[in-house]
Amino acid sequence: MNKFCSIFSQPLQLFPRYEFQKVVKKTKTERHARGFTCWGQFVAMLFCHPGRAHSLREITGGLRSCEGKLKHLGILAPNRSTLAYANEHRTLSRALSPPHPAGTLAESEARFIEEALVRNSYKRLATARELGIDKTTLWRKIRKLGIKCPAEDPE
How many domains does the chain have? Predict the structure, then answer.
């Protein structure tokens, strides 16, 4: 009898499902879950990396396109709303990963924008071009993140 092992199931073999379930039970992550398991969420999030999916629509669409092959992984393709809710409310990722030394995403983004502003002598148009965003988007991010810019000279 031939043993079949898909390319996607190979990285999952690095994460023993029994050990995964022990951590889920210990952290009580699935205590209010109905139908969509932490394993299903983990597989969905792992699926998006090789395919470079950037949105929930891409992730769920990709999973739906190979739904028949997901049965051997023990999951079904989730809806976008289900995946969004699970990503927002489940704390398993925080329980498994140590705190990031760089801080929150907003802090990292603020530092990144500030460094670009300094490199461009606080010229917003040049900074926006360097970052590949619109100057209005840069202005909004500066306001939202509370980045202090030196006062512009009234010449």
Answer: 2
